[in-house]
Amino acid sequence: MEYSDKDKLLKMKDSYETIPVPQAARNAVIDGIDKGKREKKKIQMIKITKRSAVSAAAAAALITIMANASPVTANAMEGIPVLGAIAKVVTFRTFEDMNENYEAKIDIPKVSIDNNDNYKVNHSIEEYANQLIREYEKQVTENLAGKGHYSVTSGYEVVTDNKKYLSLRINTTVIMASGAEYVKIFTIDKSTGNVVTLKDLFRGKEDVLNGIGENIKKQMKEQMASDDSKIYFYHSQEHDEDGFTGIKGDESYYFNDKGEIVIVFDEYEVAPGYMGAVEFTIPNSVTGL
Fold first, then answer.
1. CATH architecture classification, 197-289
2. What's the burial of 194, exposed, middle or buried (CB within 10 Å: 0-12/13-18/19+)?
3. Cα angle vertex 63, ends 61, 69, to 5°?
4. pLDDT over 50 at 73, yes or no
5. Reported confidence tier of residue 177, pLDDT bands at 50, 70, 90
6. Do β-strands 102-113 and 150-161 pair in parallel, antiparallel, or remain unpaired?
7. pLDDT at residue 15 above 80?
């Protein structure tokens, strides 16, 4: 009897499946399968561990950002032992008041370096805050706003935190009929714990301060030429009005990510109020940094 090709294949399949497998070979196959399962679990555990490490690092970074950005968060974190050192970079007390048409909320930061409170810096910061509080209390006591509304809001943020410097920016908005924005920046040398003014930074280099002033004038002129909505007050041969004449050395400043100095002026100081507080980035080619 002749078999079809299909029948031949089926008979070959049956013969293959009935071939006896030695026990040693069977055990080797089973061991191989078990080993593969163990290796798969190990790889999964490694992946989970890596994801956990990344998540922990991301959480730590988020905590650092929150601690520096929000005084409320920073204050709350001080009660957590593990996170205390992070939160103590900036802590605070708050002055709040609401009296009929008067309102104030002033967050007062405190700086510590290497877990040590910096008395000189904190005293300067507190004195600046107390000036705001005294002015507010004068407005309330003498009812200078009359039937109008008077409010003071002051907060802070860390704008520079590198190996050498810490810059704490205090932003204050005063509203009385119209609003005014004020900026005060404390730039601190971490190695000494002292506030460093522009005059300190370029001590004995008055030509650099003059160069910074001229660069700011140049930026003002270029911005006004390219944008009709921008207006600056500055004194030059072409523009004979009172206004910005140069750098005195006590202006607020911080360092950006490129290590360049950024100088900040209060609202109305060098430009009309609608432009708010204005900033000028000074190239390192000018400062020599």
1. Alpha-Beta Complex (3.90)
2. middle
3. 105
4. no
5. confident
6. parallel
7. no
> Domain locations in the chain?
90-196, 197-289
Taking alpha carbons only, the member of 78, 99, 79, 100 closest to residue 89 is 78
**To 10 degrees, the CA torsion angle through 67, 68, 74, 78?**
80
Q: Which value, in Å, is the radius of gyration of the alpha carbons in the chain?
A: 34
Q: What's the token pair of residue 230?
A: 């921008």
Maximum Cα interatomic distance, the chain, rounded to a whole number of Å: 123
Task: Report CA torsion sign: 277, 278, 284, 287.
Answer: negative
Question: Other CB atoms closer than 10 Å to residue 165's CB: what's the count?
Answer: 17
Model pTM greater than 0.85? Answer: no
Average pLDDT over residues 278-284: 97
CATH 3.30.565.40 at 90-196, yes or no: yes
